[in-house]
Amino acid sequence: MLRTxxxxxxxxxxxxxxxxxxxxxxPLALLIGLSLLDILPASSLGPVPRVDWxxxxxxxxxxxxxxxTGQAIALGFDRRYGVLKRLxxxxxxxxxxxAGRLAAALVVVVLQSVIIGVVAxxxxxxxSVSGLLSAVLLLMLGTLAFGALxxxxxxxxxxxxxxxxxxxxxxxxxxAGGILVAPSSLPSGLARVVELLPSGALAEGMRAxxxxxxxxxxxxxxxxxxAVLTGGxxxxxxxxx
Length: 241
Hints:
Elements (H helix, E strand, L loop, with lengths): L1 H13 L2 H20 L5 H4 L4 H31 L2 H5 L6 H29 L9 H23 L4 H18 L11 H8 L2 H13 L6 H21 L4
Helix pairs in contact: 1-6, 2-4, 2-6, 4-6, 4-7, 4-8, 4-10, 6-7, 7-10, 7-11, 10-11
């Protein structure tokens, strides 16, 4: 049941033009633009090449776009049109409805990561080989954490409110959640708060893995806590209509 439900969710996501725009084209546009244009100050990049600094953060953005924003909006409108109500009449338990969406988000993130990685390689990206396993674990945990947050939001509010709030949160986390602005460039107190956000933890963990080749237990722990807490809450609070 889980495999079938996840396959349907993946198919629906890939056929949705707006979802593809949000989850893939925007991250790709930012990757190319920020890698080729002198937009970000050189002081924030450090000694690493621009594309090496940008790519891990764009991967984190792609996870947030698909697993959180896209997931929340899709779920909100599925509830509005009675999709969840009809699925609840089948043998699918509520927890499996959540798990199926998270599994589908993992598949989409894998496709995103491959495409973004190929484009980044053409731009000159050279990730640290020793950090690839850590990066894969971070992407999985980030998908679970953001996916659970997306289900929590999309399963609680009206579709119109979900659409507005999910996009606002995406924009705020992009600019102030540790993705485009590294926590190290912020005041110490604010930096600590940003590092405890799933966006900041994922972006910093990906940077440590793919730039420094380091294992990132701190960000992994933050993402795991977000995934467990919000996933459990979402499985109890998601409304069918």
